[in-house]
Amino acid sequence: MLWNASFFTTASANEEPSREEILQQRMTYYVQFEDQLVPWYYLAAIDQYERNIQSVRSDIPKRDGIIAIQFSDEYWAGALNPVSQDTVPTTIDFFGGLGLDGNEDGIANPKDDLDVMFTMANYLSSFGSTEDDYKLALWEYYSSEEVVNQITTISKLYKHFKTTDIDTHTFPIPVRSEYSYRGTWGANRGWGGRRIHEGTDLFAGYGTQVVSTSYGVVEVKGWNQFGGWRIGIRDNHNSYHYYAHLGSYNKDIKVGDIVEPGTLLGYVGSSGYGKEGTSGKFPPHLHYGIYKFNGRTEWAFDPYPSLLQWERQAKKAKQ
Length: 319
Hints:
- By secondary structure, this protein is of the alpha+beta class.
- It is 31% helix and 19% strand.
- Strands 1, 4, 5, 6, 7, 8, 9, 10, 11 and 12 form a 10-stranded antiparallel sheet that branches.
- The radius of gyration is 22 Å and the shape is elongated.
């Protein structure tokens, strides 16, 4: 195991906790319920999903605490409870609320991380102990297939890598190869109708390797009339990474595979802008885009600043 569930790291009174300390603290919460209720990586995935949407949604307040999961007053205290922010376990139960006392202090407090985590773990386990049971629980809670798929993807990654520390990235083309790129976000595109450029084009020779920039799960692979031979990867931050105009794929990559930064996906080409197999309508390049899912919709954002940062990091690592 990569953690010690009995160890709880804290910063000194005058210091902010480090990123590593925060991850360790979260893991301590996740693993407390693994044996008797639900695997830690499902709880971690829900927590990460909630953290993701809180970071991009103005209508959802950011929860204070180590854990990001938060419940509505109606869910916690009961829809008919006259005390909307009730913390008394007996009256919460009487009014059909689902908030629980996880640390046995006699209070079911939605601001207490342990009570929150215990409540979510109890909810999941009430549906059963299989992956299908957990998916049903998530559907009943979020009422969205897209959300269920996103959380399932995150849990799959955490389970595979046995850690939540999977936030590193790399440049999508080997930095020692010949390539060029610049910020072209929002530029007009005419083929296929009036639209804007949702990504960054990295120009390189035919056959230049294209690698995954992130940890993630292969969600889509195949032909798209705009992107040609393309591949799409979903990461643990609700982001979809889009690699388009490939000349060919890594033959070992398939939908559902788990990848990490540097995993070979395919090779630069000039495919797209037509029916399947169309190629050569533009110079060879990789079109790289990132789309963010906020729990309701998905939109593209400019990957150019991230590419600059990942390029610097990749070059530094090669020194």
